[in-house]
Amino acid sequence: MRGAFYGAEALRLQIARNEVKVMVRYPEADRKNLKDLITMRIRTPDGGLFLLF
What we know:
Blueprint: H1 2-6, E1 8-15, E2 18-24, H2 34-38, E3 41-43, E4 49-51
Antiparallel strand pairs: 1-2, 3-4
């Protein structure tokens, strides 16, 4: 859930001497308020989905 709202590292790329972190997160429109958190579906390790509330 934290990654959906604040971002999670998906990939690191080495470009010449620079390392670039690619971050992913939900679009801003989908993480603006508490309702978005309540309706967020959580994926379980076996691939199932459930609602937090």
